Amino acid sequence: MRKTLFTLLILLAGFNGFSQDGEGVNRSIGLEVFRGFIYEHKPQITHLITDHPMGFRVVYNRHSHGNEAWQQRYNFPDGGLTFIYMDYRDARLGKTLALLPHFNFYLRGKREAKSQFQFKAGFGAGYTTEKYDRETNNQNNVISTDLTGAVLFQFAHQYQLSERLALNSSLSVTHFSNGAIKKPNSGINIFGANVGLHYTFDYQRRAFNYMEEPKLENRPIGYSVILIGGAHESLKIGAGTKPFFVLTGIVDKKVNHKSRFGAGLELFYSESLKEEIKYDDEVDPDTDFKRVGLVLSHEMMVNEFSIMMQAGYYVYDPYKAFQPVYVRLKLRRYFGDHIFGSIGVKSHSAKAEAMEFAIGYRIK
């Protein structure tokens, strides 16, 4: 999981996409408390759901006003950091501390209004105080590493009490998982209700900069070659973590300033599946461990970042260790016009297969 943090630092270098707004940018700090429940996404975690998780969040935001065209396209979003302190109120799960860079999107067209609805998406990393241990904590089958990936989605209502002070109430889902780097890894999903105050500590009255959106005259087809890598453990606990690789080719088309849709072909190579077949008495030991998949993708572009959602289907999968349909959620960052990197999670239904790290080259 240490390479997860390293990759996040690279991807999020320059995350503060509002730095070009200059010294006049408004910044705010917020404190929120929450209470929630652990979602029982599989019966194997029922014994761990004994109480309602509680905690608090510290939220830092930089507010945009339209100095760049992409800010106006997304109704002048905020960018910032969310720190989470989560107490599961169960000794086997302990507590989690997480830090997530986030984007906060405003859903109401009239951005100047005091009452606003928001959607937040955050991706980061967490540290958990209690993990699976065969001798001392063998009932914790949700997390087996100190460091985890963290994902946050939230719908909120914000009411501006004054120029500096705002009341924020929200419903959120927070997910922690190590991406099957080590088993067991059922992952954990917390649905929560949150309330708090946000204070703008260097407030300056600024108008939102509405500019005429340039027409998208050229909508070229793009071609991407992507190499994905990582490590995960097979379905058998204690089998050891082994590397995997995925080679992907995607053809996509930009349909507007915000979205690209694409389709592609993927070749999967996993040392863990190769090893697992050797010890599976129910299959021929010569069964091919490689897989081929067809994938559809949608890319939501936000400045040099994008949020990728993909769905795929295995057209060749002799071993059939997982369901034939898989999905991905990942954060991509572009370094110039052609090179990009990404980090994400691939899963089959509620079952994570791997945390993926990728580098790619795109021709447009």
Can you summarize this structure?
Pfam families: PagL. The chain has 364 residues and is mostly beta strands.
Please render the helix and strand layout as text:
Layout: H1 2-11, E1 27-38, E2 54-63, H2 69-73, E3 78-87, E4 95-106, E5 115-128, E6 147-160, E7 165-177, E8 188-200, E9 221-233, E10 241-254, E11 259-270, H3 271-278, E12 291-302, E13 305-316, E14 325-335, E15 339-348, E16 351-363
Antiparallel strand pairs: 1-2, 1-8, 2-3, 3-4, 4-5, 5-6, 6-7, 7-8, 9-10, 9-16, 10-11, 11-12, 12-13, 13-14, 14-15, 15-16
Keywords: Hydrolase
Pfam families: PagL
InterPro entries: Lipid-A_deacylase-rel (IPR018550)
Give me some keywords for this one:
6% helix; Acyloxyacyl hydrolase; 364 residues; 8-stranded antiparallel beta barrel; mainly beta; hydrolase activity; 8-stranded antiparallel β-barrel; Porin; 54% strand; flat; hydrolase; single chain
Question: What does this entry look like structurally?
Answer:
The chain is mainly beta and 364 residues long. It has 2 domains: 2-200, Beta Barrel (Porin); 221-363, Porin (Beta Barrel), CATH 2.40.160. Helix content is 6%, strand content 54%. It has 3 helices and 16 strands. It has an 8-stranded antiparallel β-barrel with strand order 1-2-3-4-5-6-7-8. The longest helix has 10 residues, at 2-11. The model is unreliable at 16-22 (pLDDT under 50). This is Acyloxyacyl hydrolase. It comes from Fulvivirga lutea. GO terms for molecular function: hydrolase activity.
